[in-house]
Amino acid sequence: MTNKLISLVDYENKAKALLSEDVWQFISGGALDESTVSRNRSSMNQYLLQPKRFKDVGSVDVSTKVLGSTIQLPVMISPAGSQSLAHSQGEEATASATCRASTVMVVGTAASRNLETVRKVSNGLLWFQLYHHGSALTEMLIRRAETAGYQALCVTVDVPHTITAEKDLRNNWKLPYGTEMANFTCDEAGLGMKPNTPEARQYRRPPHIPVTWDTVDWIRSITKLPIVIKGIMRADDAVGCIERGVQGIIVSNHGGRQLDGQASTIEVLPEIVKATGQKCEIFVDGGFRRGIDVLKAVALGAKAVLIARPVFHALSVAGDVGVEHVLNILRSELYEAMALCGVRNLAEVDENLIYSYPSIVSS
Q1: Residue 218 Cα distances to 109, 213, 225, angstroms
Q2: Can you tell me the distance from the alpha carbon of 145 to that of 159, in angstroms, rounded to the nearest whole number?
């Protein structure tokens, strides 16, 4: 099946035909009018590549290092819960594919497979995404991630209040019976539930507690794992993260799923990179669908980009094979774009590859 799919858009279109309408709208939807969802994509086209000539690039190297570890392409898997909506193997399939592609998967707090199970199918690079659910539950998750050998904590800070998309309200959307919050219902959580029981299947995770600077300081005080903060859209917040010793920042507007009417992530990326200098690693997510999108982000200062919705598309079409294929499509597109732009490796990619920095991007 995958040999007929040659782009991430092909996977998206195929997934839409395969998934039920309410599941599709849950995966693809965003907040309110979905203007931020659209802007994440449309803004990519406002940044134009300016290729270098008179260079024999030879072979192109698309590998890079993140938090000291080498990955074979600057595309990572963003945390996204309930992947079993798209495929029965859920996060296990994604982890297997990501390991084979030699990049990072960020496993979500709201995953449909618990973090220990995901680790068992992957000896690759795994980060654990952390929502704050109070000191006891949060520390429980951190200790389990440490024990399971996760390489970093990815603390999500852009959901101080949970919203429900209008599409989901119209559909009366609820996670299907049997889609568990596995990190809370497994034996390892110690919350008194047994997996695959009616109680576990009906369990919904605790409410989010807003992350404050004190929360970041507390998390740093109880773990030696590197900390990456996800959900930054302002330069001053990025600087505050650096002042508190975090190792990475993910520029993210939650894929447009929380606050509508925001700037796109690629629009704010340059100012955040400028404000932070070389003091921590900067990543970005939000609407990346082509290798040229990845190249633009790296040229603007990102170490790597993260993808989420394309993972659901790939899972629904072909499980782990689909996820690996999507990553390989992006790898191939990035390789070709770099070769055409006259750069041999990602270290040679810088802001000089971008034609202009638009101050206003129309949506």
Answers
A1: 19, 9, 13
A2: 21
Give the three-class secondary structure for 321. helix
- What are 6's two structure tokens? 């040659």
Please count the structural domains in the chain.
1
- Beta-bridge mates of residue 307: 77
Kindly list the catalytic residues: 254
Terminal-residue alpha carbon distance, the chain: 35
Report yes or no on 348 lying in a domain: no
Domain of residue 178, CATH code: 3.20.20.70
244-275 burial, b if ≥16 CB within 10 A, otherwise e?
Answer: eebbbbbbbbbbbbbbbebbbbbbbbbbbbeb
Q: Global pTM?
A: 0.94
pLDDT attached to residue 359? 52
| Tens digit of each residue's pLDDT (9 = 90 or more) over 14-64 | 999 999 999 999 999 999 999 999 999 999 999 999 999 998 888 999 999
Residue type for position 229? I
